[in-house]
Design brief:
Elements: H1 5-20, H2 28-35, H3 39-51, E1 55-58, E2 64-67, H4 76-84, H5 100-123, H6 126-136
C-alpha cells in the first residue's frame, strides 16, 4: 500500500482546516497558499471529503469549509479511506477459497498487516494531530469548532 498525493495532501489540508477554522470557515485559496497545494487539486479533494461528511461547505462571500464533525470524532483512517479507498496491503477476497501456503501467508501476514494499519490510523484523531502541531509550533491553545 502506498498513500497517494491525494491522501497526503488531503490529510495536510484537513489539519490546516482544523487549525485555522477557529470560529469561521476557511477558503481553499488560503489552504492552497499555506500548504503549497494547487487550489484545483484541493477542490477535487474537498469534493470527496464533503461527500463523506468530513467537511461542510459554506457558500457566499463568507464561504469556505468547516469540519464536518468535532476534531476528536474524525479519525485519520476516515480521511485516508475517503480519499484512498481500502487501505489494505493486499486485497483479500472473501469469495476465494485459500489453502496451503497461500492460506498460511494470508492468515499470518496479509491479515495481520491490514489489521495493524487499520488499528493505527483509527487510533489517531484529527484532534491528536492538531494538538501535536500546535505544541511543536509553540501554540498552547486548542481550537474547537
Amino acid at each position: 500500500m502506498k498513500i497517494s498525493t491525494k491522501g497526503r495532501y488531503g490529510l495536510k489540508a484537513m489539519i490546516d482546516l482544523a487549525v485555522y477554522s477557529v470560529n469561521d470557515s476557511v477558503t481553499l485559496k488560503s489552504i492552497s497558499e499555506r500548504q503549497n497545494i494547487s487550489e484545483s487539486y484541493l477542490e477535487q479533494i474537498f469534493s470527496t471529503l464533503r461527500k463523506n461528511g468530513l467537511v461542510k461547505g459554506k457558500k457566499g462571500s463568507q464561504g469556505g469549509y468547516i469540519l464536518g464533525d468535532i476534531m476528536s470524532n474524525i479519525k485519520i483512517g476516515d480521511i485516508l479511506r475517503a480519499l484512498e479507498g481500502d487501505l489494505s496491503v493486499v486485497e483479500l477476497s472473501e469469495d476465494t477459497v485459500v489453502v496451503g501456503i497461500d492460506k498460511c501467508i494470508k492468515n499470518n501476514v496479509w491479515e495481520k498487516l491490514n489489521e495493524s494499519i487499520n488499528s493505527i490510523v483509527d487510533s489517531i484523531t484529527l484532534e491528536d494531530l492538531v494538538y501535536d502541531y500546535n505544541r511543536e509550533n509553540g501554540s498552547n491553545f486548542m481550537y474547537y469548532i
